[in-house]
Specification:
By secondary structure, the protein is α+β, with helices and mostly antiparallel strands. The chain has helices at residues 9-17, 40-49, 70-79, 116-119, 138-148, 155-188, 227-238, 260-288, 295-298, 301-304, 314-317, 357-368; strands spanning 2-4, 23-25, 56-59, 66-67, 84-87, 111-115, 127-131, 197-198, 211-212, 216-220, 244-245, 249-253, 322-326, 339-341, 346-349, 373-374, 376-378, 382-387. The relative contact order is 0.12. Residues 288-297 have low confidence and may be disordered. The chain binds pyridoxal-5'-phosphate. The site of pyridoxal-5'-phosphate (PLP) has 10 residues, from loops.
């Protein structure tokens, strides 16, 4: 299977359970460090090189709202006779109005997974699997659902999903129109920020992103400060819960259920924080004046999501004995487990890949920044599992 490397860990678990041979597609990393799109050209090059590929799977939109050209990629996949599976966990609200981009179901993907609970008003654990073509055998999918799902489905969840769908049917047009109005107003009122920066589609080149879902509010600290610091200011001072934090940004999720009052509170917080940061910002700008300080050089994500040398497939490495060693001793060894930041849950290394000195340095940087690194244990030292045989 051809897998976008920025897929959620759920996809990697499927690779493991089904003993799949994976080839990866690495997304473009935008100048601001955010992982960008997968392109049809990339998919086509890999399909041409690897004629045994049986399916393609990618995430669109990403956590940050980056959308790939699903129509173009599905056309390529179909030309090569393989289905396209889109993890649209973050896109259940697409195609329902509010001038959001079209969803993958209508763009030709063969299987589309949406989390209603992420961007629509629905209980957690209420996802949808859309099968749209004959390229995927619905009966076989049904069989596996019987294996992987609980045999005691929740009527509470199902009733919640029904209530959500009914609400969208009856009031969706109005709710999405109001939502768009609030978003437009919000983005219009953040353009005067001096230090903080709220991401928009204009931050990306056509190569980096096909389009952007602006329901995700991605706020860059713009001051050399860590995203984690900003996250705590939002939470503790303003009682605003951000969804995710990365090296130099925090991400807030919005939905049709957010009121104008909520957006106003966020706007007030943004402007107050921005004013406080301004003094610091101008000092930093002065210090760096004259040095061509590129956005790229500041990119944290660019440095961590890089291809690692691969020795074997995930399922092969996970069948071998392992032990835990201090990070520094692990350089040159093969990873026996995943290491990822959660959120977003995208692995930085997967079992079967080789631990490099650069990888160890990136992990140390994540730890220093206070990010939640999973797959590393902390006892006396930071330790990692390596294959040991
Ligand atoms: C892109 C993506 N896919 C899949 C998932 C898994 O969804 P769930 O937690 O609902 O199982 C997530 C969860 O965060 C995600 O971000």
């Amino acid at each position: 299977v051809l897998v976008a490397r920025n897929c959620h860990k759920a996809v990697y678990h499927a690779l493991y359970l089904n003993e799949l041979q994976a080839e990866y597609l690495y997304p473009a990393i935008a100048r601001n460090g955010v992982q960008g799109q997968i392109t049809a050209t990339q998919a086509e090059a890999s399909l041409r090189e690897n004629p045994d590929i049986a399916a393609v799977i990618l995430t669109s939109p990403t956590y940050e709202g980056i959308i790939s050209d699903i129509k173009g990629i599905s056309e390529v996949c179909h030309r090569y006779g393989v289905p396209l599976i889109v993890d649209e966990a973050h896109g259940a609200h697409l195609g329902l109005g509010g001038e959001f981009p079209e969803n993958a179901v209508r763009q030709g993907a063969d299987a589309v997974i949406m989390s209603m609970h992420k961007t629509l008003p629905s209980f957690t654990q209420t996802a949808l699997l859309h099968l749209t073509s004959e390229r995927i055998d619905a009966e076989e999918v049904e069989r596996y659902l019987g294996i992987f799902e609980t045999s005691s489905p929740s009527y509470l969840f199902m009733a919640g999903m029904d209530a959500c769908v009914r609400m969208l049917k009856e009031q969706g047009a109005q709710l999405f129109a109001d939502y768009r109005r609030r978003l437009l107003d919000f983005y219009g009122r953040v353009s005067d920020l001096k230090c903080l920066h709220v991401m928009t589609a204009a931050d990306f080149t056509a190569e980096e992103a096909f389009c952007v879902d602006d329901s995700k509010i991605v706020i860059f600290t713009g001051s050399g400060r860590a995203g984690e610091e900003l996250y705590h200011i939002f939470l503790e001072k303003y009682k605003l819960q951000m969804e995710m934090v990365s090296g130099d940004y925090v991400l807030g999720m919005t939905s049709i259920m957010d009121t104008q009052e909520g957006f106003d509170r966020l706007l007030t917080a943004l402007h107050e924080i921005d004013n406080e940061l301004y003094a610091d910002c101008s000092r930093l700008v002065k210090e760096s004046a004259g040095e061509e300080q590129s956005v790229e050089a500041n990119s944290f994500v660019r440095s961590i999501y890089v291809p690692n040398p691969r020795e074997m497939q995930i399922y092969q490495a996970m069948a071998l004995a392992y032990r835990e060693v201090p990070l520094d001793e692990a350089v040159g060894a093969m990873a026996a487990d995943y290491v990822y930041l959660y959120p977003p849950g995208i692995p930085i290394i997967v079992p079967g890949e080789i631990i490099t000195a650069a990888f160890v340095e990136h992990i140390r940087q994540c730890i220093r920044l206070g990010l939640k690194v999973q797959g590393i244990t902390e006892t006396d030292l930071f330790r990692i599992k390596i294959v040991y045989f």
